[in-house]
Amino acid sequence: MSEMKSEPVILNLGPQHPSTHGVFRLRVTFDGETVVDAEPVMGYLHRGSEKLAEGRSYVQIVTLTDRMDYTASMSNNLAYVSSVEKLAGIDVPERAQYIRVICAELQRIASHLMATGFLLNDLGALATPLMYCFRERERILDMFEMLCGARITLTYMRPGGVLQDAPAEFWPALNTFVNDFPGYLDEIESLISGNEIVLTRTRDVGILTDAQAINASITGPMLRAAGVQWDLRKANPYEIYDRLDFDIPIGALGDTFDRYMVRVLEMRESIKIVEQCIRDIPQGPIRTGTPYFIRPPAGDAYASVESPKGELGFYLVSDGGISPYRCHVRAPSFINITALRDMLVGWKMSDLIIIFGSIDIVLGEVDR
Amino acid sequence: MYGLGLAKGLTITMKNMLMPGRMFTLHQYPDRKIGLLGLAKLEGTNPITYSIKRPLMTLKAMVGLASVEDRMPQHSRFRGEEFSWYEDRCTGCASCAKYCPLGIIRIVTHPSEKAVDEGDKYVLDVFDIDMGRCMFCGLCVEACPYDALHMGSGFEEGKYSRRDLVIDKQRLNDAPKRPSTWFRPQIEGQGFDPQSGDEVDWTKAGRHVKPSREDQQKKWAKR
Q1: B110 and B146 inside one domain
Q2: Which of A76, A315, B47, B132 is most buried when burial is the number of CB atoms within 10 A of its CB?
Q3: pLDDT tens-digit profile of A149-186?
Q4: What is the ipTM of this complex?
Q5: CATH of domain A46-366
Q6: Which of B37, B69, B101 marks a domain boundary?
Q7: Would you list the DSSP string of A186-249?
């Protein structure tokens, strides 16, 4: 039977397809049911954020970064404001740094929950595991609403700190969440990790080796699932991460199951980080007095953070004016998706969706 | 054993379906249908007492027409529609218009006829906010130096035409003054909750107490 060859068929997955996580088009060449070639076609959600940034002041760009990776706005805000702070040489008060780290880690949990839920959704477990994940994500979004009045497009961080100190009701809610969440995570994990169907569908499927991952400059959970212990929080500590005690979970094989598992383990580490931050957070100001229209000296700066998807960096060039001369975004989703072809070729059609889902891309960030 | 993981998963699903602490909460915005039992429970009585006390409502509940309001709790910093704007506080400096990333605020002013010591300020002819393009980032509120503009707390301002989404001065003045406490710690400090239905007076909305006429005169004299 293996000699039987059929004519290759080109199939378009998307741009409007429920399992592509957005408007993403994938041109797949099939031989029977096996993927021979895959070509991602991007740009359906291109809004020109980088160009728009050239006409806005440094604070106004924060609103643009919310809309890049809309499942992890806090991390985007953090990456952007650290870049501006590096460019203009602004110091950040310690309390603001702690609040930033708490927000970034909560956002990481929210984003990973969404990734896990949708991976299961792609597997065919419609809605039930997704709802378990979303129930927990909802509590994080509620806390963000307490902080800054929005749930998705947060615009919370500013160059020089955060906008407003956390309200009184935030800390009890955070404490309850930190205490409850490991239990809920156990539940989600025992629902998924031991499930035979999930194991058969994800084990050894869509392997991305460490050499391939490094070659394609993959970052984030995908790289760590391939067994490379690289995390910007440890490798190049920003904010207060050098004072915190946490581990970097890595996978063994780099298959779809490892990518899922690394995300679950990272959520546990994030909870550890948040616990330490609650314990250590000092009193004090939350923002240095920066003017509304910052004029950094001419020059350039690149700052990057470990966003839930990988290394998210902002490269800003200033000519001394109120808006950057050039703003470039190193978007992890965009770079992670370049490895898609390596992972897909040779796998069956039904594996395609799971492998694609395990990358965890957000199209707002891919196309910007 | 094969199938053990599946059984375990089903137990978890069952637990989440039946255990009261684990059940998903269902919110049917803006109100949900309610039966006689639920109504009685809300009143704190049993159904029989309730049906004697309020027969009409009981009848409605029996045929499935009774409903109660059901909303998710909204936090006081919620950035919503219907800006709370105080004309008494606004000087027409147009900081908000300058700071808005989208440039949707339009302000036209002219100098007033009054003398400086009689409380001179610019008279606002136009104050338009195009809500159809607003993204509720709240930068205008952050920019306002006199705490005249606040985010609102409502979100139910759907209109049939884009033109109706432009809020003009009249509508801003008429809107209920329920400012969101976002970036307004002074209102938050007063313990104001926008969902309570109370309104905030313009004198209480600011960071600073407005100096009295005498104080002002003293200050001017000192200069």
Answers
A1: yes
A2: A76
A3: 888 888 888 888 888 888 888 899 899 999 988 888 88
A4: 0.79
A5: 1.10.645.10
A6: B69
A7: HHHHHHHTT-HHHHHHHTTSS---HHHHHHTT--THHHHHTT----HHHHS--TTGGGS-----
